Amino acid sequence: MTRGKPGQDALDAEPVGFDAHDHSRCVERAMAAAEAHCAADGLRFTPVRRAALEILLREHRAMGAYDLLERLHAAGFGAQPPVAYRALDFLLAQGFVHKIERLNAFIACAHPGASHSPAFLICRECDAVAEAQSAPARGTLGEAARATGFTIERTVVEALGLCPACADKAQA
Hints:
Layout: H1 24-41, H2 47-59, H3 65-74, H4 81-93, E1 97-100, E2 105-108, E3 117-123, E4 129-134, H5 140-148, E5 157-161, H6 164-171
Parallel strand pairs: 3-5
Antiparallel strand pairs: 1-2, 3-4
């Protein structure tokens, strides 16, 4: 996402994804942020876009487009792939979801409304994903870009490893 709110710094936020918690508050906050953003920018937050975002938020995990399409169809929307892909394109463009390249899947943004560069921690055993923050322009990558005159516009950081639950199982 490229937009942000004054005083809001997503870089200070904790990673989201591996801890068990009451997720209903996260869903409500993210849906309200999406609705407010669309209203402020005059964008159509159509029923299918709203349903797609809510499904991703409630699942609290990365989902493939066809998994999302099945859920949308079960909720009364069309069963053709463009239904899911058009909704995902909109949600990606607005920064409400992120694409996890390694899994070819999508996950709801853990920090809606914040300007940030997400990094994804992906469990190689269970495919659980946590969203953390990265600052590529401030680190070694940023230094290399500056040295070559390159301007970083977007980065995708995906780290592969074990989530706490799978690490505990591996040690047992």
